[in-house]
Amino acid sequence: MTSKLKKKLDSQQVQALDDIERLVGKDIPQIKDYVTSGRFGAKIEGNNIVELGLNDCYLSTLPESIGNLTFLRKLYLEFNQLTTLPDSIANLQSLQLISLNNNKFINFPESITSLQSIQEIQIWNNELTNIPESIGKIKSLQVLDLYGNKLITLPDSIGNLSSLRQLDLWDNKLANFSEGISNIKTLQILNVSSNELISLPDSISNLQSLNELKLNDNKLITLPESFSQLQELRDLQLENNMWKGEWADIAKKDIPTILKLCRKLNGIRIFISHAWDDQQKYQIMMLKIRLKKECLKQENKIEMNIIHEVYICETDVLDDIWDFMSENVPKSHLLLFIATPNSIASEACRYELFLANKFDIEILPIKGNDIKWEDLSRIQMIDQKIEHNGTLDLSRPKEKFEFDEKNFNEIFKKLSGYILTHEYELKKDKKWIEGLGNTKKNILDIINSRNFRDIVKDNFEELNRLYQELIDGYITNFQYYWKLGEYLK
Length: 489
What we know:
By secondary structure, the chain is α/β, with parallel strands linked by helices. The chain is built from 13 helices and 19 strands. The strands form four sheets. It has a ten-stranded mixed beta sheet, with no helix packed on it. Helix 5 runs parallel beside helix 7 and helix 12 runs antiparallel to helix 13. It starts with a helix and ends with a helix.
């Protein structure tokens, strides 16, 4: 910069310019309009440098005196060899934008997190492997561009960025969607394409301001039910994931259809257990059809069916009925038992009850008019080998449903109301049971521990009584493990 221009500046700013010019080996020209990405030069307003571009200057370091440029609003340092920034960067409290794209940063420069006026941070195409917890201090930040790095995780403190509107994480190594992101209520644009994501958390529904979301090129198989609550989405990209089964064509759907499908495909699964001879009398097919079509809940002024599937044993599965039951009862959330003399005597129905009890699936009896409630107090369950496997008491359900040929509509209305009311509870219990599979190793470690053996020894009689209640069908597996867990606290 010419001596004439430098005369406009105070001595500290001149010192900073002189130090930088020595590093780059040439004078810094004045830019009269504005500094942008790719430009080399400085913009002066009044007696201060307010914008500075040191792009493509082969810089591997910056002088501490750069902290003298306290009126600087924009700083571009792109296409250099920088790995760190001087601590004096924290003095640039007027800085609104800093661009560090295409450098060699492995660690996020923590000095930036002290900038109280910063609104935009660009640091793409570097080698970043982590983001510090201190990132959460930047309350003024609106745009954070981190694409093209090697990030594996993000700190939960990223959720403290209360002004963030745009977050770009494209082309990193993220395997988990940070819960912290879900706390950024102001977020409007989110790009997490080209990562290693296998799932999204239920908390993604917190992003109520989100209108652009890119999830291309990950390993997603499904979307959570809560995704259906992102009603402000206008741009959604889901291509090149690992969608399978009912989710296979999800990326080709329009946004309203995708949101409805997320609700439905994550909905409740119901298994109707009934005797074949009762199918016509108790209108089983009609019950299935109406449950799938009419069990509706209104969300954001849109009616959505909360039931994913209703399973019944029809004529086309009679040849492999045992396989059908073994596959579909365990993945259900609710088993409706049409309780009649025929179903209590049916080996198939008693096996379905056995499976439901084994996998802690709620059993809701619907009593026929040819049986009494007390007749349901000791139903004998059988396993697939047609062996007696305990008894089940269904005589005192949470809510009593009594069916006859004249009250189908009344029963259906009451039943759909029950399902809508207990939807969350049914799904919560099912998720708890499914989660047991993920903690199998931990459970085995506990069982093999000395502490566990001591607990069993000290409480042998009580634990034996508890186990007998399970065998006799007085408590479910869920209740058994819950009470067992109380001894392990």
